[in-house]
């Protein structure tokens, strides 16, 4: 059965993409810890990160690092937090989000989807895409070749 992330990746459900290549996508969490909270997800639906091939795991973490650099630059945070939880959706994903202290890792503080400021959400997405040189679908823009 397809996970919600597979449905987002396949454009069956809308997502706010920041990055995309053949193996990995990155899109905004609809219930973010902070604006800029991005999920880095392999295209292949694998439940546990420990079951990924070493090559895919390496690429996934490389993309997470790139997204983390964008989070710091765009959101102005001291660090980019990174968490692998995996209990909410049976599809490996890395949470990357702005962090200024350990308190920012508290998932009880997620913003409810209906309380998200959509304008700020969209502005942050646009700024992160600009930083990464990607288009609205997360692909590298042709003018960056």
TrEMBL record:
InterPro entries: Histidine_triad_HIT, HIT-like, HIT-like_sf. Keywords: Hydrolase. GO terms for biological process: nucleotide metabolic process. A motif (Histidine triad motif) lies at residues 91-95. It comes from the Bacteria. PROSITE patterns: HIT_2. The keyword Hydrolase applies. The active site is at residue 93. Its EC number is 3.-.-.-. This is HIT-like protein. One of its GO terms (molecular function) is hydrolase activity. It is an enzyme of class 3 (hydrolase). Residues 4-107 form the HIT domain. Signal peptide: none annotated.
């Amino acid at each position: 059965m397809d996970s919600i992330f597979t449905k987002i990746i396949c454009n069956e459900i809308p997502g706010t993409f920041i990055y995309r290549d053949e193996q990995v996508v990155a899109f905004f969490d609809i219930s973010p810890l902070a604006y800029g909270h991005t999920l880095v997800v392999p295209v292949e639906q694998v439940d546990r990160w420990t079951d990924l091939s070493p090559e895919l795991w390496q690429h996934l973490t490389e993309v997470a690092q790139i997204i983390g650099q964008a989070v710091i630059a765009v959101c102005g945070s001291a660090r980019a937090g990174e968490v692998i939880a995996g209990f909410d959706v049976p599809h490996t994903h890395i949470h990357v989000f702005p962090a200024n202290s350990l308190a920012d890792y508290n998932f009880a503080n997620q913003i409810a989807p209906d309380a998200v400021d959509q304008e700020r959400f969209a502005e942050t997405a646009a700024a992160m895409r600009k930083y990464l040189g990607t288009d609205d679908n997360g692909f590298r823009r042709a003018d960056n070749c």
